Amino acid sequence: MKRFFRVVLLIFTAMICFHCSSDDNMQPNPDPDSNPDTNPNPNKTTTYNADVKVIIDAQCVRCHTDPPVEGAPFPLRNYSETIVGVNRDLVLRMVSNSMNNVMPPSGRLPQETIDIILDWEADGFLEK
User: Does pTM top 0.70 for this prediction?
Assistant: First the structure.
């Protein structure tokens, strides 16, 4: 009986260790080939109002509204709220190749759209 409890304890401990060792939902998995310090369009200054808002409105606001739906953790209805998202790894999730962490959940955005977001980042997340 004592041996039985030791085996059960060993199995339980192993299950806990393997369960806690990795969680795909904890950190975004950015594209290893993308370099957020690059400026995809160095001849243009990309701003939220002129370039990014239309992307956010088309791709994000259906879930990132007020109140957020479908598990979205925050709204993205305007520049201020989008900067909150930027500070919570929004850009990393948009450029991710991981199916578990990419935003939007329907799939990775086209590279041309991602380049606008990366250009906005390189230009300093300007509003106007």
Answer: no
